[in-house]
Amino acid sequence: MKFLCVPCDTPMKLQTVAPPDRGSLSIVYACPECGYEMAMLTNAYETQAVQSLGVRIGPESDTKASDASACPFAEMIPAIEGSAVGAETPIRWTAAAEARLANIPGFVRPMARTGIERFAREHGALEVDEQILDAAREFFGM
Amino acid sequence: MKGYHDIVGDGGSRILEQVAEQRTRITDGLAGVRHLVAVGSGKGGVGKSTLTLHLAGALRARGLRIAILDADFNGPSQARMAGVEGALFVPGTHKVSLPRTRDGIAVFSMGALIPESQALEFESAAHGESHTWRATREFALLGEILASFDWGALDLLMFDLPPGAERTVQYAEFLGPGTSFLLVTIPSEVARGVVTRSVAALSKGPNRLLGYVENMSGYYCRDCNAVKPLFVSSESAALGIPCLGTVPFDPELARHCDLGIPLTALRETPVGRALDLIAQRLLDGL
């Protein structure tokens, strides 16, 4: 969808996208020539139609929006296995291991984290680093 | 006044560009795959998943590098049958490594992520209206899986498709003209009728139809070591594509599937020999 400022005959530019409110997005466009602003307010169907494509909605410079929707499936699957809690000592993750975990889709991440922490415990480690990740890959024949 | 096509870009949301980037990521992710083979039918309950897994096993036994993507997100069965239920997903340096069967077949199945007591759910802004968006979202999910997992160098990536003649065509369009199709039917007029619709629908597109497999072509009785009729035989209309083989029903195979045991132990049975022959014909057709 594109928006045109009719008096200026100039394409309008996306300015901001407000977080969804009861299924509606408020998307503000402005004319770079005259500064006129307008807001597109989507209904739930329109919001969902675009979100279903698995794309990020927001201006390119909007890093906050980018982070929030980097993976369209992050909230898709309920937490199947909660993180190990209770008496067990928490497992630390090194920055490098966290970075590798961040590369994988959000819908797999909670399960991957839990499983790798379990693997680390079973192998006497209290920290997940790249060596543990590689050991897990080897252990499971990947 | 300018029209839509006079304007370059879309003002900053880059929706079309993002969709194009997704396609590029998928293409890049599958760069090491020689053949894409989708196993479909149109009809449910004909044994697509079982045949997919055991054909993969027969191909693997020939030394080929094989992976299976269980594209039936709502009724995934490969995780259990392949023995990778509850498998660990481990991040590599860039992508996620896939769990493997005992005989080395890489498998992605939503069944490894979601317990059988739960259904696949998506967050939605349009609650109660999933008929308006769900198919789009499932294909976006398929794209994310293809782009995010480490498929590596493969001889064949086999897709285990969900039922539905129209879904079969949607997968053909999504996966592109390079994907070949193998259809599965059983000796029932109802099933053949549905598969005929799938053949008709797929024939309108550019994808290759390798042929079909008639599953449950008879009942393998272990007591008398003979294949007996399972369905009342009748003159069946031709499907218009080659028959790559027939596979009898063997209760032992069903047991293996439920327990996630590879086909190896059944290789010297009528089922094993039939699957081996079909695997060879499949390779010949690629």
Structure description:
- The complex is a heterodimer of chains A (142) and B (286).
- In chain A, 32% of the residues lie in helices and 20% in strands.
- Chain A is elongated.
- Chain A is built from 5 helices and 7 strands; from the N terminus they run βββββααβααβα.
- Chain A has 2 domains: 4-68, no CATH class; 71-142, Helicase, Ruva Protein, domain 3 (Orthogonal Bundle).
- Chain A has helices at residues 44-51, 63-68, 95-102, 109-122, 130-139, and strands at 4-5, 10-11, 13-21, 24-30, 37-41, 92-93, 127-128.
- Chain A has 142 residues and is an alpha+beta fold.
- In chain A, the strands form 3 sheets. In chain A, strands 3-4-5 form a 3-stranded antiparallel sheet, with helices on one face. In chain A, strands 1-2 form a two-stranded antiparallel sheet. A two-stranded parallel ribbon of chain A has the order 6-7.
- Chain B is α/β, with parallel strands linked by helices.
- Chain B has one domain (20-285): 3-Layer(aba) Sandwich (Rossmann fold).
- Chain B has helices at 15-29, 48-61, 78-82, 134-148, 165-175, 189-203, 251-259, 270-285; strands at 33-40, 66-70, 90-91, 96-97, 106-108, 154-160, 179-185, 209-221, 226-228, 243-249.
- The longest helix of chain B has 16 residues, at 270-285.
- Chain B is globular.
- At the A-B interface, β3, β4, α1, α4 and α5 of A face α1, β3, β4 and α4 of B.
Biggest sheet architecture of chain A: 3 strands, antiparallel
The global form of chain B is globular
What is Rg of chain B? 20 Å
Task: Give the N-to-C terminal Cα separation of chain A.
Answer: 43 Å
| Helical content class of chain B | 25-40%
Mean pLDDT over the full residue set of chain A: 79
Structural class of chain A: alpha+beta
Low-confidence stretches of chain A: 63-86
CATH superfamily of chain B: P-loop containing nucleotide triphosphate hydrolases
